[in-house]
Amino acid sequence: MIIIDYNGIAIGSIASQKLDPDENLIRHTILNQIRLYRSRFIKEYGEVVIVADGGENWRKVVFPQYKAKRKATRDDKKEYWDEVFRITSMILRELIDNFPYKVMHIWGCEADDVIAQLAYNTQEFGNHEPVMIVSADHDFKQLQKFDNIKQYSPLTKKFVEEENPLLYLQEHILKGDAGDGVPNVLSDDNVFVEGRRQSSLSAKKKQTLLQDPEAMGADIYRNYQRNKMLVDLNSCPDPIKKDIINKFESQDPWGNKGNVFPYLVEKKCTLLLEVVEEFI
C-alpha cells in the first residue's frame, strides 16, 4: 500500500514552488506527483491510497489552541489560501470520481490519524502488507516501530528513517510541537497563543521525565498527558478509528479505471495523457 499524504503533496508543492492558485497548474502538479510515486513504489508496495485532512479536527475540540497560530498566519493571505483550498478540494473530488484509488477523507480527523490507523490495521491478523507513506511529516517516524512501515519525503526526496521510534515518540511528547501549537510539558496551554516563550526543557529535566513522566509533579504530568493525546498517533478516539477502517474496507474504486483517460482529455492534461498507463 502506497499511502500518499494529499495535503502534504498539494499544499507542500504550492508553498515550495510558490505556485499561483491556477487550477490547471495545480491539477497537473498534484496528478504528476501521484503518478511519479505510484510508478516508483507500486511493484514493492502495491496500489495507491490518497489520504486528506477532514473538517472539524477532534484535536481542536479537546485543545482549542491546536494550530491556532498557523491559522492566524494564513489569515494574512486569506483570499490566496481560500482559493488554494478551493482548488485542492475540487481536485480531491475529481480523484474520487475518476481514479482507481481509495481516497480517505474522514470528517473529524487529520490525514495523520487516517494514515496511522491504516498502518496499525496492517498489524491485524491477515492484513500484514508493506506500506510506504509518502509524506514529509516527521510525526510518522513513530510508526516505524512496525517493520512493514517505511516513509519517503517528497520535500527532501529521501527516505525518512528513525532508529528508535519509541524514543522519538517519548521525546516528541516532552518537547511538544511548536508548529502545531503544542507546548512542551513544562509550559501551559496558552504559551503560544499569548506570544510567550516556553519554559526551558533542559537535557537533565528531559532525562528525568523520560524515566518517569510523574517525577516533576502533577502539573507537568498533566501537560505530559495533554501532549501524549495530541502527538501520539494512536490517541485518536475509538469511534473515529472505526470510521477510518470501515470506510477503507468499504471502498472499491477499480471501476473508475475507465474514467482516467477521458478525464485527462477533458482537463487538457496533454503531458499526462502521454503516460496515462502509469496511473492505472
Describe the structure in your own words:
A hairpin with a 4-residue loop joins β5 (149-153) and β6. The protein is globular and about 65 Å long. The chain has 2 domains: 2-162 and 237-279, Rossmann fold (3-Layer(aba) Sandwich), CATH 3.40.50; 165-231, 5' to 3' exonuclease, C-terminal subdomain (DNA polymerase, domain 1), CATH 1.10.150. α1 (6-17) packs across α2. The protein has helices at residues 6-17, 23-45, 58-62, 68-75, 78-98, 111-121, 165-175, 203-211, 218-231, 238-250, 260-266, 270-273, and strands at 2-5, 48-52, 102-105, 131-134, 149-153, 158-159. By secondary structure, it is an alpha/beta fold. It contains 12 helices and 6 strands. A 6-stranded mixed beta sheet has the order 3-2-1-4-5-6, with helices on both faces. The model has no long low-confidence stretch (mean pLDDT 93).
Reading the helices and strands in chain order gives EHHEHHHEHEEEHHHHHH
Q: Please count the beta strands (DSSP E, at least 2 residues each).
A: 6
Strand content range: 5-15%
- CATH class annotation of the largest domain: Alpha Beta
Mean of all residue-level pLDDT scores: 93
What structural class do you assign from the helix and strand content? alpha/beta
Rg for CA atoms: 20 Å
Poorly predicted residue ranges: none
The CATH homology group name of the largest domain: 5'-nuclease
Supply the number of helical segments: 12
How helical, in percent, are the residues?
A: 40-55%
The geometry reads as globular
Q: Which strands sit side by side, in order, in the main sheet?
A: 3-2-1-4-5-6
